[in-house]
Amino acid sequence: MRLTYLSPNGEEGYPGNLRVEVTYSVNIQNELVIRYSGETDKATSVILTNHSYFNLAGEGSGNILSQTLQVFSDEIAATDDAMTLLGTKSAVAGQGNDFNHPRLLGAAIPHLLNHHGDNHFIRRPSPGELVPAAILTDPVSGLTMTALTTQDCVQVYSAAILDGSLTGKSGRSYEKHAGLCLECQECPGAVHTPLLGDIILRPGMRYDQTTLYRFAVMA
Q1: Are 9 and 40 within 8 A, CB to CB?
Q2: Tens digits of per-residue pLDDT, 97-111?
Q3: Is 115 a catalytic residue?
Q4: CA distances (Å), origin 2, targets 18, 74, 160
Q5: 3-state secondary structure of 96
Q6: 54 secondary structure, DSSP code
Q7: How far apart are CA 102 and CA 111, in angstroms?
Q8: Catalytic pick from 51, 111, 129, 192?
Q9: Residue 219 pLDDT more than 90?
Q10: pTM more than 0.70
């Protein structure tokens, strides 16, 4: 499936006529591949991502607290208590948002700011390489999902503000922590702080990023 959009010059205050395209496909390995591309006629900031909720126990099965998460990251984008970006990085080692080893989400989420999640900088050997960002595992179904990306960050979101007002195809309500988002992206704070990356797309350049979700069954 291919989706396109033209954001005209000045829309929401952003300069440039920005043409973007997102392609969703499933390859022969049954991996979900999301490919983003874009071009502009004026320098403008661009971050494209995907906000899908995943629950490896199945739709309508309840919360994800019994599932485990591993994130390949040593640093996060620091925020204040209101979750406003501060333009700096913070180390995760020994902190509540350290997921370098698989952690049970039910035990980990209470230690996250606002029980929410953070924007993690992914360890990568070279720019633009498709590398693992995170692994989600459900011990009951035996399913694992690995998120791989060419982007520099993955935003972990624990669905902390779901309140049961939404229902799924099963007719069951989506309560708090009914799913987990792994949003591969760049860091929004980079528009003000080059230390956090380069998110400016310039005329003559092409925005080109890929995120892949790989599913498997534990042996």
Answers
A1: no
A2: 999 999 999 999 999
A3: no
A4: 17, 34, 31
A5: coil
A6: B
A7: 15
A8: 51
A9: no
A10: yes
Pull the structure tokens for residue 143.
């399913």
Residue carrying structure tokens 């403008």: 44
* Burial class of residue 31 (count of CB atoms within 10 Å of its CB; 0-12, 13-18, 19+): middle
Distance between CA 21 and CA 59 in Å, rounded? 28
Please return the burial class of 182, using the count of CB atoms within 10 Å of its CB with bins 0-12, 13-18 and 19+. Answer: buried
CA-based R_g, the chain, Å: 18
Question: Which residue in the list 75, 120, 177, 183 is annotated as catalytic?
Answer: 183
51 is catalytic: yes
Domain annotation for the chain: domains and CATH numbers: 50-196+213-217 (2.70.98.10)
Which residue type does 69 have?
Answer: L
Distance of alpha carbon 31 from alpha carbon 215, whole angstroms = 7
| Distance between CA atoms of residues 198 and 108, nearest Å | 31
